[in-house]
């Protein structure tokens, strides 16, 4: 049996806000504005991150890009291992993604399998001009050849450690915590 305990606080609420603001500025710079740009948040914590980045982009550029919600449950390569009745939160992308620059947004980049599933789901909806990836924390240990375009914080971890992103919209507070698994 193993127990999870909090090892250290990596980002507090103001650090998260600064990281999202930096990511928003990098998105504008790389894309030379917001033309043909859409944001898609991966359920769950990628969604509020996408909404926050859109709001920041609105203050920077004077207009917000469309925001979509992506559930990758049925695109996971470990679906059969999850449970007999996986929780589906739903996809809501009320805009055409063809020829758009899509910024896919998630909280933690680890093996790359969630991102792979997200890309597969996006291609089932259309053919974007490009897909870029924004992540709050990149913790390493990639199993697929993927790299984030925008990163809030790089945190090298061991395989016994985990990263927990908490956002006010879901968890009631904003913080990122490094946790450790201890065998008991």
Spatial strand arrangement across the major sheet: 3-2-4-5-6
Structural class: alpha/beta
Please tally the β strands and state the result.
8
Briefly, what CATH class? Answer: Alpha Beta
State Rg: 16 Å
The residue ranges in which pLDDT falls below 50 over 5 or more consecutive positions are: none
Major sheet, described briefly?
5 strands, parallel
Short summary:
By secondary structure, the protein is an alpha/beta fold. It is built from 5 helices and 8 strands.
What is the element layout, followed by pairings?
Elements: E1 2-11, H1 13-31, E2 37-42, H2 46-61, E3 67-70, H3 79-82, E4 101-109, H4 113-125, E5 130-138, E6 150-154, E7 161-166, H5 168-171, E8 175-183
Parallel strand pairs: 2-3, 2-4, 4-5, 5-6
Antiparallel strand pairs: 1-8, 7-8
Textual characterization of the structure:
- The chain is an alpha/beta fold.
- It has one domain (12-76, 89-157): Rossmann fold (3-Layer(aba) Sandwich), CATH 3.40.50.2020.
- The protein is built from five helices and eight strands, in the order βαβαβαβαβββαβ.
- The protein has helices at residues 13-31, 46-61, 79-82, 113-125, 168-171; strands at residues 2-11, 37-42, 67-70, 101-109, 130-138, 150-154, 161-166, 175-183.
- The strands form two sheets. The protein has a five-stranded parallel beta sheet, sandwiched between helices. A three-stranded antiparallel beta sheet has the order 1-8-7.
- Strand 2 (37-42), helix 2 (46-61) and strand 3 form a beta-alpha-beta unit.
- Helix 1 crosses helix 2 (46-61).
- The chain is globular and about 50 Å long.
- The mean pLDDT is 93.
